[in-house]
Design goal:
The structure is a homodimer. Chain A is an alpha/beta fold. Chain A folds into 4 domains: 170 residues, 3-Layer(aba) Sandwich (Molybdenum Cofactor Biosythetic Enzyme, Chain A), CATH 3.40.980.10; 53 residues, Molybdopterin biosynthesis moea protein, domain 2; 88 residues, Molybdopterin biosynthesis moea protein, domain 3 (Molybdopterin biosynthesis moeA protein, domain 3, Beta Complex), CATH 2.170.190.11; 72 residues, MoeA, C-terminal, domain IV (Beta-clip), CATH 2.40.340.10. Helices cover 21% and strands 31% of the residues of chain A. Chain A has 8 helices and 28 strands. In chain A, the strands form 8 sheets. Chain A has a 6-stranded mixed beta sheet with strand order 7-4-6-5-9-8, with no helix packed on it. In chain A, a hairpin with a 2-residue loop joins strand 24 and strand 25. Chain A is elongated, with a radius of gyration of 31 Å. The N terminus of chain A is likely disordered. Chains A and B meet through helix 3, strand 15, helix 4, helix 6 and helix 7 of A and helix 3, strand 15, helix 4, helix 7 and strand 22 of B.
């Protein structure tokens, strides 16, 4: 069959895979909020009480009845009697009635009867008499009860990422524990008779396993738990056994094929044999990454990535990252951190194919220059040297020097 | 003293602090490369051997002497005798001499005598005779010895962040362990008589400690280790004792003041008392964050952040993150992940002051809309609801609806 009939573009390939996957079952666990950075909230959380629970001053100054200050100015101050000081961290045991005031500190609880605070800067103290030099409106310089969050309000919907701000919001309401989604387990299998574990000194003709580790850290980066199954020999039996075990133990399975065509074909055959519907996409119209295989075995995604380490990692970003997001109840598409930069040279590209080019960023006064790192697509050090990747869309025939492009961080 | 004479803009404040800090001593530790995602390489690493160590084919095809193919075309093929197949993962025990060829797979080691590979697609096999339909140049479809990395070449300079690509590069060369910088210890002290631990139900007038936890997760996010010392009462003795202990045990100390002016003044006095040169900046021309205090005690940065949780967290991003980067041997300035978006409304701003506005992003066909979240600056849920922050530079008097702005992710 001619190749151009069989290769789908990456986005279409991913969409086809996603259509064949069930809605993921999201396992949850309760963990300490203080350790929840980067995790995903598992259930909608309502505020158990209002925040704040009492009216608080936002400034240092004097608690007043706003009406007592109306018309006050430098030339015509309002005069109020000082009746005390509001303590920090406790209910003030005093009451503001007309023509009286009390000292209050930022964050302090408003005393009974007060409805506003005049900033210290707009007052003068003469013995026990306070001159108010500026009027305040009802509620001015005060946080009302529930102004931060009302009782029962949704704090943050399920599926939200926990950042430092969320940790703060949860702690403010007393949630010292939080129900989060478990890290989905992603099984990683390497194959290839030429591949040896990294701790071994390779013999001539052998290379160390890179892909198990680049993919494991990619999985970790995107919130999955990598289960590394090691290197499986290029035999159909061994391959089927390894994938089958990984399918039992994990939510998704990644296989980096040995780099030969026969090894890739074996991956596809194993996926076909191990569950329905089997291989959905065999070959993607992208560079690097053409030999990528996308399949589903009885509800679980199985991805066959090329043995070439650049291809495996780039297509990890393209296919594996969105699938982990789905397993965490997120949109497959993410807002990938990127930076705008000016391309330094022309880059040719074949129409109909999506290209991913490693880019080195250079600072150029206030902006960035994007310098492509050319080199054969199987050199891992082209990615080690790169700051990010530039995607050339399938409908482009290349990019021109001077164009402003988006470089996606690696 | 008039306020405008004493308040420095944030960048100037940070620069002043940095000028008063010694070059940090960077402690190191050896860890497994497989667990090193996000860590910083501690020492320049040279390649112990070339990568690859043998010439490898990048395609499936036939190993040849390039000269044998010169002039070959569909109409005038070159004819070569097939003498065998190169095994995967071992040295081929055959030699290519003129007019002979051998099957080779992607990633396979080139046999002796061969200097190029012809892709399978450009050949035809007739019994033991291979028709070569296209010429190849010397080295074509081959990765040369050391083409990925030459022996002794610098893999990655010290100070580099370890991403999935670096994990791959290290593993490729057999570095299963790697020397990385230790997480610098950042001490965090909360104060304020109104503040209670988050597991406690606050009485009227009390609030839960938020700042210890937002700052601890911010520290974690930027590669530090947070040491949380809890809540210290608003007394000079207790404050000095706590800061002094934290200075002994940590590389930097953060104090979030009680929200009252007297509590802030106490922080400054404690910093002055505990080491030289003491307080360098007392008040920063930014909103939120005006009461921020920057100091150095005998070579260690001590930062007094406002008690207001929004101010503490925003100024954590502004001041604490760059200082942790310095403690990790990085440039203080970082390329903060951001996204361009179109502002939905006018935002006024006071000239001379740097403003930080919480922003909610909304998708608008292909682009983003930046919708400011207005609200008193002490409401933590304005940050919980925000996707990022918008900085309004001190020399601006505001931004206009429709302007394209950079929103920095929280």
């Amino acid at each position: 069959m001619p190749e151009f009939l069989t290769l789908l573009p990456p986005q279409e390939s991913l969409d086809k895979l996603l259509r064949n996957l069930p809605v993921p079952k999201l396992a949850t666990e309760k963990i300490e909020t203080a350790s929840a950075l980067g995790r995903i909230i598992a259930a909608d959380l309502g505020a158990p009480h209002a925040l704040p629970e009492f009216p608080r001053s936002t400034v240092d100054g004097f608690a007043v009845k706003a009406a007592d200050t109306y018309g006050a100015s430098d030339s015509l101050p309002a005069y109020l009697n000082l009746i005390g000081e509001c303590p920090m961290g406790a209910t003030p045991d005093l009451e503001i009635i007309s023509t009286t005031t009390a000292i209050i500190h930022t964050g302090g609880m408003l005393p009974k009867g007060a409805d506003a605070v005049v900033m210290l800067e707009y007052t003068q103290t003469v013995d026990n008499e306070i001159e108010i030099l500026r009027a305040v409106a009802d509620g001015e310089n005060v946080i009302r009860i529930g102004e931060d969050v009302a009782q029962g309000a949704l704090i943050k919907p399920k599926g939200s990422l926990i950042r430092p701000a969320e940790v703060g919001g949860l702690m403010a309401l007393g949630f010292v524990d939080v129900e989060v989604l478990k890290h989905p387990k992603i099984g990683i299998i390497s194959s290839g008779d030429e591949v040896v574990p990294p701790e071994k000194r390779p013999h001539p003709g052998q290379v160390r396993d890179i892909n198990s580790y680049t993919l494991a850290t990619l999985v970790e980066k995107y919130g999955g738990e990598a289960i590394v199954y090691g290197i499986v020999s290029d035999s159909m039996d061994a391959m089927k056994k390894a994938i089958s075990r990984a399918l039992d133990e994990c939510e998704m399975v990644l296989i980096t094929a040995g780099s030969s065509a026969s090894s890739r074909d074996m991956t596809a055959a194993a996926i076909e044999a191990l569950g329905e519907p089997g291989v959905l996409v065999h070959g993607v119209n992208t560079r690097p990454g053409k030999p990528t295989i996308l399949g589903v075995c009885d509800g679980k995604a199985v991805i066959g990535l090329p043995g070439n380490p650049v291809s495996a990692l780039v297509n990890g970003y393209v296919f594996v990252a969105p699938l982990i997001r789905c397993l965490l109840g997120q949109d497959a598409a993410e807002l990938r951190p990127s930076v705008s930069a000016k391309l330094t040279v022309n880059i040719p590209s074949q129409a109909g194919r999506e290209d991913w080019i490693p880019i080195k960023l250079k600072q150029d006064s206030d902006s960035f220059l994007a310098e492509p790192i050319f080199g054969k697509s199987n050199l891992i050090f082209t990615l080690v040297a790169a700051d990010g990747l530039l995607k050339i869309a399938p409908d482009a025939t290349g990019l021109s020097a001077g164009e402003i492009v988006e470089v996606i961080f690696l």
